[in-house]
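Pilot study result, target chain (590 residues):
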Amino acid sequence: MGDSNDNISLEAARERYAIEREKRLRDDGVEQYHEFTGAYEDFDIDPYVEPGFTRDPIVEDKTVVIVGGGFAGMMTAINLTRRGIRDFYIVEKAGDFGGTWYWNRYPGCMCDVESYTYLPMLEETGFMPTEKYSSASEIFGYCQHMARHFDLYPHALFQTEIDEAVWDEDVERWTITTSRDDRLSAKFFITAGGLLHKAKLPGIPGINDFAGRMFHTSRWDYDFTGGSATEPMEKLRDLRVGIVGTGATSVQAVPQLAKTAKELYVFQRTPSAVGFRGNGPTDPEWFESLEPGWHDARVKNFTQCVTGVKPDERLVDDGWVDIMWDNTQDQQGTPEDRAARERLDFETMQQLRDRVDEIVDDPETADKLKPWYGKHCKRVCFHDEYLPSFNQPNVHLVDTDGRGVERIGATGPVVDGVEYELDLLIFASGFEVTTDLDRRLGFNPKGRGGVAMSERWHDGAHTLHGIMSAEFPNLFNIGIVQAGFGTNFVHFLGKSAEHVAWLVEACSEQKIATIEPTPEAEEAWLGLLYEEAMKIAGYSLTCTPGYYNSEGQRTAKAARNLVYTGSLLDYNEHLVDWRDGEFAGAKITR
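Predicted structure:
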């Protein structure tokens, strides 16, 4: 293809990106989704525990209380253990450790970052993933393995939710009450809800009018579908099934549903970019040959590769590294530099669009499955069975042209005035990421003077590093709002857990009674976040709405609820430098 045709193609893509983005912009942003409360509380039933669990209330004083038993909470507890701090409880809503990997047991679910890089602490536990991309069941099993290896089970309060967490100024401790009538007192309170914890439902009118069976993918009902995460869902043979959403969850679930459903309708608002995965079994000899220190080196190398650092050696060979090798969202440099990056981005996405044509037989369906946005706008998916599913006669793509499902009637979803009759409706609508912290946590912490988090953060997050907040002494949060972010979520969680454990140990060793940032330090950190965001601002403005950009919201609150858009490695350097800086910007009492 010559230069002139290249330019025409690029210009056409640029225009198509703008058109597709405009279709999807909404005034309600992240508020378009519902929580599993009130009229939707039936969606929140845990299908993986026996009903009727009870235990006696616990009244105890602890050094630390951690909220969350996923990777974030587990790694925090493990890092505390390494520092000799074992006086903690882990409060977890679910019936076991695992977090996202406890809830996500839908068919076909697996990690999308190679397991040797994604799974934490492999050297310490001696665990060998069986495949390059571990299944959800293997990851859940590994979480249980970690908990046993590091002796976390005696510290866990499962099937328990926080009702209230209040700072007691008189004793300089947090008072925490739970749904099990526990009353815990803690010097340090750590919220480690992780990144993919609070499931959400699309705010489609009439969602409760549907007369068939409904559930969210994180609450999969195998009693209804039959089968399991690894076995065919035989009960779907005579049923019409619909799935709402075409993100990473649906990309994995659709091929499994397509194998047995009589008819499968896939309701799409925005198509995912789907690259080649190439999963395969682990070579035990290769795994045994890895030298000590291999895991940290591999994790760091992967993050370098997917953030444009371009190390001399690529330790990970996969689609992520191929696609993200060039950081094309950077808007710095000369106009020629920016044009070259736009060209590279376009060529990468065009290859993914061409892949759709190569795989999907029907040209009209293929055209609707093509992603028209930049490669940094949404999380790229990698799968080898999703696109071929649309060649099956029982699989039907219902493209909503960016608008989403109009409403749900008694028999099924309505799109363009057509009601699709279904027996089962599945919501693959993901999890909340940048919504208000108190909403994601499920409780509203109250700091000095009884001020609630929702009050202090009424205009958006106020933090130092996304971890500490003024007026909330000894409260440390692990999450991406005003903090780091990366393709490998667990790498970020691990660095955050290290930092929080360091804070607890440093305060204990130095006889620090309370620690919190000053408002001035919070605003300085926000200024640095804005500086980083400006480096990619032009690129971000071309993106379709999604959780990366708070569903395209352009409010002052959304502007504060941003993430550190630079490299995760750079974010971690900020944490390391701060630890060397005598609590800069923090207010402490002894």
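One observation from the pilot: Confidence is low (pLDDT under 50) at residues 1-5. A full batch analysis is planned for the follow-on phase.
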